[in-house]
Prior knowledge:
- By secondary structure, the chain is of the alpha/beta class.
- It folds into 2 domains: 20-250, Type I PLP-dependent aspartate aminotransferase-like (Major domain) (Aspartate Aminotransferase, domain 2, 3-Layer(aba) Sandwich), CATH 3.40.640.10; 253-367, Aspartate Aminotransferase, domain 1 (Alpha-Beta Complex).
- It contains 12 helices and 13 strands.
- The longest helix is centred in the last third of the chain and has 19 residues, at 253-271.
- The protein is globular and about 70 Å long.
- The structure holds pyridoxal-5'-phosphate (PLP).
- The site of pyridoxal-5'-phosphate has 14 residues, from helix 3 and helix 4.
Amino acid sequence: xxxxPSTMIPLFKxxxxxxxxxxxxxxxxxxxxxxxxxVDEFEAKLSEFFGNPYVVTxxxxxxxxxxxxxxxxxxxxxxxxxxxxxxxxxxxxxxxxGATIVWADIDPATGNIDPASIQKRLTxxxxxxxxxxxxxxxxxxxxxxKIVGNIPxxxxxxxxxxxxxxxxxxxxxxxxxxxxxxxxKHLTTVDGGALLTKTKKxxxxxxxxxxxxxxxxxxxxxxxxxxxxxxWGYKFHMNDVNATIGLANxxxxxxxxxxxxxxxxxxxxxxxxxxxxxxxxxxxxxLSSNWLFTMKVRRSARFMDYMKSHNVMASKVxxxxxxxxxxxxxxxxxxxxxxxxxxxxxIPVGWWVTQEDxxxxxxxxxxxxx
Length: 370
Ligand SMILES: Cc1ncc(COP(=O)(O)O)c(C=O)c1O
């Protein structure tokens, strides 16, 4: 190993296009910075990208999850089947709705919720199922939908922009798909998110729910004095400042995704055959966004220390959600989460990881005593 990074190679890095500043300057001094034409333009771009006309931009991925639960009508007494292997943002909205979390186990080969475990958890009270695309690898939504019948499925695709599931862009299969444009995602608006729906009815309701029950594109002459609000809504909309940042960054998203994928492929080839390391399973019909590169290793705590001591960040990224005091009431045995969480670790895979970096990282991983 001749090359050694002088500073830590990070797990995440904010991508900000150089064009952002000029575009922002124009919007910031235009006299209009709230939700307006830039949001419309960003939504149109996203619709085209996802191949779904029903895209509702929001101020975060978390609010997209809140809206999905609202559209389903989740409330006290309802059960939501979900996974603990995710960011708290996935599950805390379920608590905010007063519903009961029902943990399903995961498929340890992917880290995603296990459809067979969902089947075992179904009851008459099940109101929704939450499926998280761990690290950007799509959940098997078709199988989940077959199992749950008419129960709506929310796909938390915060990690998975650009991921493909059986030839379709993620964002077209679940009843509701939630994306995040938070700081360290492939596409950032600094903070932001989007909810994609399957039906026009849900789309129209989401437009109202995101802004006080008002469709801002249907203003009356005196737009501050709406007189016909028939339902309440939140203040969850995206504004033109965030949308402007999103538009500038959006033109780099394909390139960014490709870099993540190239680095992931490089690691998969480099780590094959190591007896103490297990690669994640990949179905040829799915294409991950590779937001994370997760693998399972023996003695993961030692492995992370080893990597960090050689200037490569390594982490589990998200703590399993079922061990927090706030979710204590819902605890149950989850043997696959136990082993997955014990062994899994993520190493830098993103657009900032250069050829030199990845060669260094691969050599370092292979040199771990195991
Ligand atoms: C799996 C998952 N879901 C939801 C979110 C929430 O997204 P946001 O930070 O945009 O609210 C995140 C955040 O990073 C996430 O990792």
